[in-house]
Amino acid sequence: MLEWLEDNEALMWSLGAASVFIFLAGLLLVPILIVRVPTDYFAHAKRPAGRWARHHPVVRVTMLVAKNLAGAVLMLAGLAMLALPGQGLLTLLLGFLMIDLPGKYRFEKWLVRRRWVHRPINWMRRSRGREALNLST
Prior knowledge:
Helices cover 69% and strands 0% of the residues. By secondary structure, the protein is an all-alpha fold. The chain has one domain.
């Protein structure tokens, strides 16, 4: 094993750098994205139409493919980070949240309704002058 690590030192440095980059990007992007979620996003029985719904079908499909591809890459990176240095579980969760799967909106609503999740989210939103999330259906 040590021999393999020595032979692939450049790969290990690259993966370490990618891990640090993803960690820092997460620290910067997560608060921005949380504040941008509409207040009533989780108050619907079905997922509200996204901002790409009104665009041309080619644009909509292109964005859907790009988002799902980025989610798949993050999930693969998260799996790798479970064994390598990095934020494996967080990266897996971010990748999962980007991919469109049946029942995902229900899971998101269930997750956000957990007190240990919605309290910090609402604190972050209030600290940036936004209303708390409306979680009633």
